[in-house]
Amino acid sequence: MSHHALQRLCRPALAGLLLLCPAGAPWADPVTDLTGAFVEAYRASAAHRLEALRAEVPVLVNRFEEVALYRPGVEAPEIFAMDLRTYGQASAVAHAAATLATRLLPHGAGPLDEARRGWLDGYLRRVAAAEEALAGQRDLPEEMRRLQVDMLAEVRRAAQRIRQQDALDPALLQALGERLRPGIRQNLDWAARSQLEQFRAQVGRWKEAFPGLAWDRAAVVVIGVHQARGGNLQRQFFDWLTGDAPAREDRVVFAETLAPPPPLGQEAPEQALGLLGKVMLDKDLGRVVFGDPLALQSDVLAPAAQAVIAGWR
Asked: Which residues form the signal peptide (predicted)?
């Protein structure tokens, strides 16, 4: 990569993550070399910020259904993995109608082609098998079992109708969604309640086991994906636990990822922990440079960009 290309890559935000700017990068001239100095200083200070945090307070890393507790002075984390049976089953049933729509709607209304006929035949078998399994699952609360069986029966009947007509009428799927909407919301409630209650109980157990930790200053990284970012369940839980809010990120940081990282027991979440140190450092930099600890949670070019674009005709 050329010197100028490297400069363009590392130029924009005052701080940011700097993941693409290698330490010791070559800079073209003494002026732009100051950016190199900043990159080196930022990396070192972010690492120190994380090290200091790890030495002082409990650090929690959440990866979907898992939570790792890093205690000061202890390298290996305590790891909790929730029981996913209630969540998984409620999620599977809630997705049944969405699966039908996902496979059929993008092709539009009208006659089915051979590929969709074959898929629909296979999906009907899978829905019928799940319906039968649920009907015999007596360890579920009766309300949950009955509702989930009824929902799968609705999906099966809609799929059978589409197959018999050998054509897709989008209005049929719309009507199916409307009928299932209350049941889907009930299943989502069960799924959310199961996760939240397990997280709350486990944090309570850790507080009892390690009462000497500075729980009132605990720091958290929540690893999630873009489409589930708004109102993220885990983020809501840890904000409640710490008294934080998404707009502040004083103690809970959301780490957005394109692909799920390995389970916490397989590989340490180095990037997520590193992000925690960077966000905390950004607060110090924002306070010093802009007089606002939240300044670097937005693009520092945003006000100028808004003014430039507003002036365009």
From this structure: 1-28
CA distances from 55 to 8, 75, 80, 275 (A): 36, 10, 21, 17
The residues, ordered by sequence, that sit 6+ positions from 280 with a Cβ below 8 Å of its Cβ are: 49, 50, 53, 219
Secondary structure, 3-state, the chain: CCHHHHHHHHCCCCCCCCCCCCCCCCCCCCCCHHHHHHHHHHHHHHHHHHHHHHHHCCEEEEECCEEEEECCCCCCCEEEECCCHHHHHHHHHHCHHHHHHHHHHHHCCEECCHHHHHHHHHHHHHHHHHHHHHHCCCCCCHHHHHHHHHHHHHHHHHHHHHHHHCEECHHHHHHHHHHHHHHHHHHHHHHHHHHHHHHHHHHHHHHHHCCCCCHHHCEEEEEECHHHCCCCHHHHHHHHHHCCCCCCCCCEEEEECCCCCCCCCCCCCHHHHHHHHHHHHHHHHHHHHHCCCCHHHCCCCHHHHHHHHHCCC
What would the mean pLDDT of 216-231 be, rounded to a whole number? Answer: 86
136-175 residues labelled b (16+ CB within 10 A) or e (exposed): eeeebeeebbebbbebbebbbebbeebbeeeebeeebbee
Give phi and psi for 169, each to the nearest 5.
-110, 110
Confidence band of 138 (pLDDT split at 50, 70, 90)? confident
Q: Which has more confidence, 26 or 238?
A: 238
CA distance 27 to 33: 5
Gyration radius of the chain over CA positions? 25
- For residue 221, the cross-strand partners are 61, 253
